[in-house]
Q: What sequence folds into this?
């Protein structure tokens, strides 16, 4: 009897409220409303084993959206004192404990989770899916991919599940723009590491990105500063990232593009928009 897995068991006893599956040593109830038609003693039935609201092992012929070691994007249907509850296709919703949330989820959210058995021998969900993701993706450097940001690290950046399946990250030096946990992102594979994990960039290739960065610099210069930026390409990387959500190298490339197009002039402490 394997909790959290789909398996084939034999009918060993029939009762008014269902049948018992298993053998002489282990038995589990399959309720009457779950019975396939014309099931009799000795027949084999494919079922999924979980625990009911009274923490009793029970079988179901319904197919859950998630099994042990699997991954699924599930909807939060409610929250409570213990955590969030997810719709996984069975009568009893699946608990996602607060301690297993990489960010706080609310009713109506969708979150990527895997299934585990807790210390009380109950099935629970966890958003800590790093070790459940695959490292054999078909993608190569330059491929365009879509993924879900599921966790973060000050040292390693943002962790992404590409196709809700493959292990990837957005390194700190690529973390530009508005990126948040739970967000779906499109990016480009910047590198495929030796272990098969992917490094992603959410920025375009340099020529395209230069145009976008240059236009962003001009827009902020006009809308926020009236045509004069109170700093230059020698300003600190921290200030540039805070103001433009780009690296200092990208900022300098954008400034270079604007200088070449004669749209700006650089002073000792400011950058001016040329009319």
A:
């Amino acid at each position: 009897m394997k909790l959290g897995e789909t398996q084939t068991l034999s009918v060993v006893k029939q009762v008014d409220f269902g049948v018992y599956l298993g053998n002489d040593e282990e038995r589990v109830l399959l309720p009457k409303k779950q019975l396939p038609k014309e099931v009799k003693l000795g027949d084999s039935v494919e079922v999924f084993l979980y625990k009911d609201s009274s923490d009793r092992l029970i079988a179901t012929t319904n197919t859950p959206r998630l099994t042990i070691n699997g991954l699924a994007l599930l909807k939060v249907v409610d929250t409570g004192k213990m955590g969030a509850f997810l719709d996984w296709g069975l009568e009893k919703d699946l608990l996602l404990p607060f301690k297993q949330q990489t960010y706080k989820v609310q009713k109506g959210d969708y979150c990527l989770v895997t299934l585990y058995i807790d210390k009380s021998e109950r099935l629970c969900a966890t958003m800590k899916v790093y070790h459940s993701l695959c490292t054999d993706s078909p993608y190569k450097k330059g491929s365009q991919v879509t993924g879900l940001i599921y966790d973060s690290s000050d040292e390693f950046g943002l962790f992404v599940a590409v196709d809700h399946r493959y292990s990837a990250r957005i390194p700190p030096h690529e973390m530009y723009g508005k990126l948040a946990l739970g967000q779906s992102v499109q990016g480009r594979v910047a590198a495929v590491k030796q272990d098969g994990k992917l490094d992603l960039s959410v920025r375009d290739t340099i020529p395209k990105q230069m145009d976008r960065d240059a236009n962003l610099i001009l827009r902020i210069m006009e809308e926020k500063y009236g045509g004069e930026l109170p700093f230059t390409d020698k300003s600190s990387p921290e200030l540039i990232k805070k103001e433009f959500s780009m690296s200092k190298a990208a900022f300098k490339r954008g400034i270079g593009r604007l200088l070449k197009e004669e749209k700006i002039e650089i002073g000792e402490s400011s950058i001016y928009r040329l009319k």
